[in-house]
Amino acid sequence: MINFGSKGCGIVDSSQVVIEADGLVKSYGSFQAVRGVNFKVFQGEVFGLLGPNGAGKTTTMEMIEGLRKPDGGRAIVAGYDTQKALIKVKEVIGVQLQSTSLFELLTVEEIMRMYASFYPNAVPIEPLLEDMTLTEKRKGRVKHLSGGQKQRLAIGLALLNDPKVIFLDEPTTGLDPQARRTLWDIILRLKERGKTIVLSTHYMEEAHVLCDRICLMDQGKVVALDTPRELVRRLQSDSAIEFRLQGADESEEGRTRMLEELHSIREVKGVDIRKDVYVLYTDNLQTSLIDLIERSAAGSMELADLQTRTATLEDVFISMTGRSLKEE
Ligand code: ATP
């Protein structure tokens, strides 16, 4: 048994596989949205599917939940094949969909009671409302809820059957920072209670904060799968130096010369250009920074907006795919 559990105090039991995605493939017409996805999710972990829009996260999740039929491969949840034993799978999962259309005219409490009536062994509603910080809103109509409150209600509804495994599809997209953090707390509390959570997101910070392991997806494929710390460690550089260049020669030739110069800076392991921002990766921030500034002082380049930061999952994604997680 390995405890990855740095996020909250839930125990991750890596000897117990709760979900297995085995060669999942899905096309829409001639477009292959998911191209052979494999991974295992362990008991008690928060497992993140992180990737830009269109990476195939939702399609992958919905094949595991049994909402979409794979063209190839299979998904096993709690020992059941979602294609062959969907009823069994439904008993152990809770699903918060990306866009839940809730009954706008019902109150929070009414909709909870209605959904609870679908399950033979639904959990009591009051503690659930409390957990979702919706007690004060129980008499309020759904249409008057904020985006964050609606998302919390959607998660509450997904928890009514006391599921072992919870699927959250981009639960914080479009929420303000405070509403996002409230949801993060809820997710970490669910983990503490031993739930296994599969979460899709295109926010790298969210994945970093919440997930024990992250499956980086791009264009329907898994590009990397590891703990956030190990993913960043793969870059072999823990710091990044970012800057713009003023009056730089923007021709192809000028850029190539500049890249060569930047690569030759002491201790620099990698160089990237994002629009007009140059990024240098280094394990020795001080040495690289001094060398960069000395070259600038000697007149070989004019630096602007210089800043340093630690390397992130965004850097990992770019180094692996050449693209950004963020929408341009
Ligand atoms: P997002 O964050 O935008 O939801 P995602 O990573 O969840 O992205 P998917 O929703 O799985 O990605 O979509 C993967 C690709 O499949 C996208 O290019 C999308 O346009 C396409 N797609 C998804 N659903 C359908 C559908 N029902 N019909 C046709 N194409 C679809």
From TrEMBL:
SMART domains: AAA
Any Pfam family matching the protein: ABC_tran
Highest rank taxon of the organism: Bacteria
Subcellular location: Cell membrane
Keywords: ATP-binding, Cell membrane, Membrane, Nucleotide-binding, Translocase, Transport
Record keyword Endoplasmic reticulum present: no
Domain ABC transporter: 19-244
Main localization category: membrane
One Gene Ontology term of the molecular function aspect: ATP binding
GO CC annotation, single: plasma membrane
SUPFAM superfamilies: P-loop containing nucleoside triphosphate hydrolases
Family the UniProt entry places it in: Belongs to the ABC transporter superfamily.
Protein name per the record: ATP-binding cassette domain-containing protein
Organism: Paenibacillus whitsoniae
